[in-house]
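Comment thread on ticket #2218

A.B. wrote:
> Attaching the input chain for the structure job we discussed in standup.
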Amino acid sequence: MSLLEIRVIDSLDRMVDVRPQWNHLSDRAFRPTVFSSWEWQYLAAKYIAEDQTILVPAVYDDDTLVAVLPLRQGRMRLGGMVPVDVLCCLGGAVTDYNPLLVDESRKSGVIPVLAEYLRGKNRPIQMENVLPGSALDSLGAYLTMHGFRKAEYESKTALVSEVGDDYETFMKTRTRKFRKTLRDNQNYMDRTGGYTYHTENPSEELLETLIRLHSSRWQLKGEKGALVQRQIINLHLDLMTMNDRTFDIRYYTIRHEGSIIAILYGFLLNETFYAYLSGFDMRHNRISPGNMVFNHCIRELHTSGARAFDMLRGDMKYKQTWATAAIPMIDAVYFPPTGMGRLLHATMKTIQGAKRALPTPIKQKVKAVLSGHPTAIPASHRAPDSDDA
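C.D. wrote:
> Ran it. Output below, let me know if you need it in another format.
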């Protein structure tokens, strides 16, 4: 009987060494996503975790990598108030689906080994953006069944559209009113002239355009957009130039007289397109540019064999229009079965209970005061796409 062994990856150099094995493991895992790829997790380690905080347990059977759990050492505020050291997902909030990448045939043996490792670290484990039914979700359930105390602190929804094999068949599943709106928009574009659709390869110019169009919408709301931190921009710049990526990067655009007025940025892997971020020029609101660039993308996806359009986190109204399924997710902290773990769990639950008991106006004031304190330090936040016009 083989004996599983954990070898900790604690530096960028060591992450580089395991790239071939990591991506080979991804081929044997159950429903891997872009965010479980070595490329994404390496850049998350480089720009989010900082080298000294990387703590990635890798599970080996002899010299074969059978699981990897991307973690880092971090710090969070329990209930938004009490700071505490934690182990958290390497990609943090900037990663839509944080992974535990595991050879599916070895899952039942791997999870107890990882749980025992985490117990030995004697720290709370913060899990955010976890897909229900994923290996990471199973690890959380195992921890709960073996003494860890779970405290949920945020819920969110990811929206997905199963686009099927044929564009026209898919569109018949949308409401008649919505189909008419798309036709009216297209008729206006045809009458006015100058509008063209494009599928474009990644470039620094396109990324800069995305940042500008996305940020301008949020600035009108008095908020910051997703790509405002320099390290997050650098992550996407490096991703674009990385050789031998396991997924494609695509930009879908609408241009008017040569200038981009709507842009959708995302990744294609295993017949799924992950719609990461979009932006549009609000001077062209008449054509609902956000919806029209989504429509352009889905039409093109059918020609490339993709079957799913994953709009990721955020259940904004414009996404609901396209969605065929909703994925509920819960962020949670798992406290180890020790005296300190029980105390920290009780502290978090007490703070959460006190907040729920406050009148709504006071809750809003408290939230405003605490909004300057990120959930995890260092923080990285990918804000949801802005509502379509």
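A.B. wrote:
> Thanks. Noting for the ticket: Confidence is low (pLDDT under 50) at residues 373-389.
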